[in-house]
Design a protein that fits this description.
single chain, mainly alpha, two-stranded antiparallel ribbon, 5 helices, 4 strands, Reverse transcriptase domain-containing protein, RNA-directed DNA polymerase activity, RNA-directed DNA polymerase, signal, transferase
């Protein structure tokens, strides 16, 4: 199955519409590979976001419950919290760093890593505005969807 996805990737490399379809097809392969991280407790139990059944809203509920538990245990007059919006902190990703992280931290290797590497390199895009389509532009860094 992994070979088939890599082969399809090489045919459609560079087309945004096909990338979205192919990306969805690659999802089962990536999820299987990421099970390595879950099985070896590399992904923290309290990790929220990017984890099935653990959206970021659950993090807020978890925080609220911790505050209530602390107040029940030892009532204090004030609770102070600081929230940091990191939504723009990771607006670009260097493909090679991501590949290294997949290999070193999550144990993704061989064919799955090769497919990911192919997916992340030599990416291009075009812009359409009022019908004319632009020339190709190369992406060096991006958030891959």
């Amino acid at each position: 199955m992994a070979n088939r996805h890599c082969w399809i990737f090489s045919i459609f490399h560079g087309s945004l519409a096909e990338f979205q379809v192919i990306g969805k097809g690659l999802r089962p392969i990536l999820l299987d590979s990421l099970s390595f991280g879950r099985e070896r407790a590399l992904i923290p139990r309290k990790q929220y976001g990017f984890k099935k059944g653990h959206g970021t809203s659950y993090r807020i509920l978890y925080f609220g419950q911790r505050v209530r538990d602390a107040q029940d245990h030892k009532p204090i007059p004030h609770t102070i919290a600081a929230f940091l919006d990191m939504s723009k902190a990771f607006n670009t990703v260097l493909g090679q760093k991501l590949i290294t992280k997949f290999y070193d931290s999550f144990g993704i290797k061989e064919k799955a890593l090769s497919c990911l590497s192919d997916f992340l390199k030599d990416r291009i895009f075009k812009v359409m505005y009022k019908n004319p389509l632009s020339d190709k532009f190369s992406l060096k860094q991006s958030i891959h969807q």
